[in-house]
From TrEMBL:
Name of encoding gene: creld2-a
SMART domains cross-referenced by the UniProt entry: EGF, EGF_CA, FU
Function: Protein disulfide isomerase. Promotes the localization of acetylcholine receptors (AChRs) to the plasma membrane.
Protein name: protein disulfide-isomerase
Membrane topology designation: Multi-pass membrane protein
Compositional bias ranges of the Acidic residues kind: 334-346
Catalytic activity, as annotated: Catalyzes the rearrangement of -S-S- bonds in proteins
One MF annotation (Gene Ontology) recorded for this entry: protein disulfide isomerase activity
Family: Belongs to the CRELD family.
EGF-like domain ranges (all copies): 135-177, 290-329
Main location class: membrane
Region Disordered, residue ranges: 333-358
UniProt organism field: Acipenser oxyrinchus oxyrinchus
Compartments where found: Membrane
UniProt keyword list: Calcium, Disulfide bond, EGF-like domain, Isomerase, Membrane, Redox-active center, Repeat, Signal, Transmembrane, Transmembrane helix
Amino acid sequence: MQFVNIVTLLTLAVVLHSPCLFAGDSKTSCPTCRTIVDNFVKGLDKTAKKNFGGGNTAWEERALSKYETSEIRLVEILENLCDSSSFECNHMVEEHEEQFENWWFKKKDTYPDLLKWFCIDNIEVCCPRGTFGPDCNACVGGSERPCHNNGDCDGDGTRRGDGKCRCNKGYKGDFCLECDDGYFNKERNDTFSLCTECHESCQTCSGPTNKDCNECKSGWVQDDEKSCNDIDECANETSPCKENQYCHNKEGSFSCKACDAACTSCTGEGPEKCTGCSSGYTEEDGKCTDINECSLPDKSCLRVNEDCVNSKGSFKCVCSQGFEDKDGACIQTEETEENMEDEDSSETVSPDNVHEDL
């Protein structure tokens, strides 16, 4: 058992200290390295003229000159390159601390671009922009204009990827020079392509208007002049919607909307568009109007001590004030001692509250 534990610990140590896990083989190695360099540059700005009042005294100038290239300043910058929770960042800084010191004291003037010197040329986890893969090969379209500026090169700027293009919206093809469906070439040559969106009615097109469609989208139809026009689905004899809905046309499509509560069927919004009235409503002046059941000659509420309360499309029967529903009848509410005391106190007038005109 002890032998197994030793082997496990040794294996873990090898895994944790294996450069391949934190260098070129990691998908995040290049982004991590770029973050480190960005934070290093921020650290340079933050520590510039630190702890000096700007009095321009000879002493300050001599001290500042020493601090600018000092190990103290380098340590301050290195300590703030990574968040404490970022394992890969802290590991990369710790693993290559000597290279930072080498650049700081010996290479900074000759190689001022830390990203190129550190991430690309030394630890080799990144590539220059416009290149990809282990050998930093140029992306499709060239390193200056990857994917002809119409897409993203897979692995761009890293030691990973295959260099293939992921085209932007509106573009397609291996080189991102062709226009996708719904777009047309406004400008085009062997190395440049500008794709512009077609008119909303076109599936494919050769220009910007509805007269330039090669094919109409669903919901549109081509007329005798070869223009794509909206199909009004709501104009059909048979509505595409359910009985309690009305059809609302829109460009290239339609929607079904619920009729007003007063309608069983309708042609549009509101009770005046009903073609049939719901129960509890009646047609008046071409509009479905609520029936006030409480005002009808025949009483709707038949129990003694019961009131009728009207509501839209309906009504309800409730016991009158001072009565309550018990076993299907409206019975007078029983007065308790507490209720009687409240009534007595409300009727008693305090002498203090009596006002007499003098």
